[in-house]
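Researcher: Last one for today. Full complex below.
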Amino acid sequence: MILRDAVVAAALAAAVAFPSAAQDAAQGAALAEARGCGSCHGAKGIAEQPPMPSLAGQPAEFVTLQMILFRERLRDAPPMPDLAQGLEDGQIEDLAAHFAALPPGPPPDRGEADAGRAGEGAALSQRMNCGVCHLPTYAGRAQIPRVAGQREEYLVHALTQYREGTRRGSDTNMNAVMYGVTDAQIAALAHYLAQR
Amino acid sequence: MFRLSATIGLAAVLALPPLALAQQAPPAAPSWQQGRPDSMAASPLAPHAPRMTVTAPDRLPTSALRVPEGFKVEVWAHGAPGARMMAEGPNGTVFVGSRTIGRVYAISEEGGQRRVRTIAQQLNQPNGVAVRDGNLYVTAINRVLRYDGIEGKLENPGEPADLTAAFNLPTEEHHGWKFTAFSPEGRLFMNIGVPCNICEFDRDRFAMIVSFRPDGSDRRVEAKGVRNSVGFDWHPTTRELWATNNGRDWAGNEMPHDTLLRIRRAGEDFGFPFCVGDWNDPAASERRQCSEFAQPAASLGPHTAPLGARFYTGSMFPETYRNHLFVARRGSWNREQLSGYDVAVARIGADGNVTGIEPFLTGFRDEANNRFLGRPVDVLQRRDGSLLVSDEQNGAIYRISRQ
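Model: Here's the assembly. Have a good evening.
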């Protein structure tokens, strides 16, 4: 099967659902301020302390889905399920628009890259097709998160949870992808992605 | 012989090059990557994001929907994110299962309006809903819950009876969500999907349709080699079981076809992972003669994701629809040009053979822009003869009636 790049790109760009109700990033920013999201996730959505994930530049659909999973108590990551109680769908969509609009970047305490481990992670990512869903830049799309420049220890935590089956996304693909991946491989992947 | 649609001839099937199996690092993993050839390693196709937030009524794609002349389609209920499989109670309450959002809804008529209640939540993919003797059975992967006399306590359903241990279902999540329905004889039927895309698995545990007594006892195998059937019904006169079946991913845009199965004898084997009709899957672990297996009654198109399927037995629609099968096709992700995203009618002749597949409800797929506006998952005939269609993407249910 020959995939023509132009056709693929067009299909990728277009195969999206009808846009949801208009989201308001400004209202989301005000809500994030009122709820104190920044005390853990960073004032500009870039988490400055472990083990918090950065949210700046995450696809809005990803943030929305995770917040719904927290609110419905289907994803357990204290204290988020409690913090999400009472949020209306529209408020969640506003929050998602806010974080999606923030410029992404690495955390201020990111260390130097280890060429050996980063190379091992790059090879693993290539073999496991990470860049297919998360995109070659690892910027993510739709329900698939940005992993480029994410905090390294958070990536280790998340990938381990997928492997252990203690976390799932909007489907079970990540659980299947992580099946049988070793701790050392997870560490290499996390290091490579955190340095992107 | 498995009849392929006119656009995909047998020659095209035979012309497919043999697919090289991707060599992946994790050995023997139940991975979605299995069966994905090197030539497709860079394909950007991925499952579409579900929407778990409420879609406002004015954002529903209702005006884009099309039905044959003489019918009309309107919004029946909305504000039920992730709405999937439907079952109706004796008093007319429509129960609706879901997957990602973990809820079961009850939708009742009150003063000409529909009221949507969430009657169960925090469940793991509670796709299966079925009603018998006024009791609601909810199936969430391996959990089976029974809410007795549910329509009398919609405000406070209370704790259900937990039948999980009695059913003893596999706990695998991938393709582990259930379609459930009671047969005319009162047995609870359900699918047990294969926990991968294509892999080696125990063919006596997975890729089946099974049935139980309502208490979870007396498991019987109704069909084998069925990759994942998320919709079936019994022919109103022959009582044969008809089931939709989802083919695997990563075998190209045109293969394999999703299929409609007519199960003539309990325990028939439809060939997964070896064959789909007369197509011998090159990614299967061994070559088998496809003539060993029962053949599909019809193709429903490549990657169209046919799910809920129900025979029409009402009197509201013209006689020409009676005893024909409505099929909701949720629509493709593993195909560059979207396919499906509609409700079709499988026409079934007097001899029990499928004579054609016709579009019935269309407009969810915007062909020019290769995008979709909604994802129909199930169809349900109500007692008045109207047809409900659930739209998972928009959390809405449409009603189709005669004008």
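Chain A touches chain B through 50 residues (CB under 8 Å). Chain A has two domains: 25-101, 115-194.
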